[in-house]
Design goal:
It is a single chain. Helices cover about 70% and strands about 5% of the residues. By secondary structure, it is mostly helical. The chain has one domain. It has a two-stranded antiparallel ribbon with strand order 1-2. Helix 5 runs antiparallel to helix 8. The two termini are about 15 Å apart.
């Protein structure tokens, strides 16, 4: 695949498909990976297996999503407790209205609790620890899958 196609894919298609992906996309990565197949610039049919497309393009969206989620989580943790994005995020966690199953499971298990703060709900140490464990687990899974894909593509 020419490098100009990769540049075009990352500049036009991936940037639009991954808009605000840090907040919603980790559990929808398979749908996002289909963007590579359905993109008209590749000229591939609908019946082309996804793993062949990813191996030939060497463009994986999951690492981008995982890195973005990690950076976003660190940014939320460094924000002041009065900041609206942070208080809104923790409010969603407490309400259990997040779209991600891992966060809903953590909320149901009682690992996510908030205490009233200056401008809304603030996370306790248990909350930050639970979120970190969930994110770390997801990141390790992602890293293992990417390593597996890269070793498979090097063997072929």
């Amino acid at each position: 695949m020419p490098s100009s196609w990769k540049t075009l894919f990352s500049a036009v298609i991936a940037s639009n498909a991954l808009y605000a992906a840090e907040a919603w996309s980790f559990y929808h990565c398979e749908l996002l990976e289909r963007v590579q197949v359905t993109a008209a610039l590749l000229g591939l049919g609908w019946s082309t297996p996804y793993y062949l497309v990813r191996a030939s393009t060497r463009t994986h969206l999951k690492p981008h999503i995982g890195k973005g989620m990690f950076r976003w989580f660190l940014k939320l943790q460094s924000m002041g407790k009065e900041r609206l994005p942070r208080s809104g995020f923790y409010m969603l966690l407490e309400l259990g209205s997040s779209l991600t199953p891992a966060v809903q499971a953590a909320a149901r298990s009682g690992g996510l609790r908030g205490t009233p703060g200056t401008a809304g709900l603030c996370p306790t140490k248990t909350t930050a620890r639970t979120l970190w464990r969930t994110l770390r687990s997801a990141w390790r899974t992602l890293r293992a899958r990417v390593n597996l894909l890269s070793t498979e593509s090097q063997e072929t």
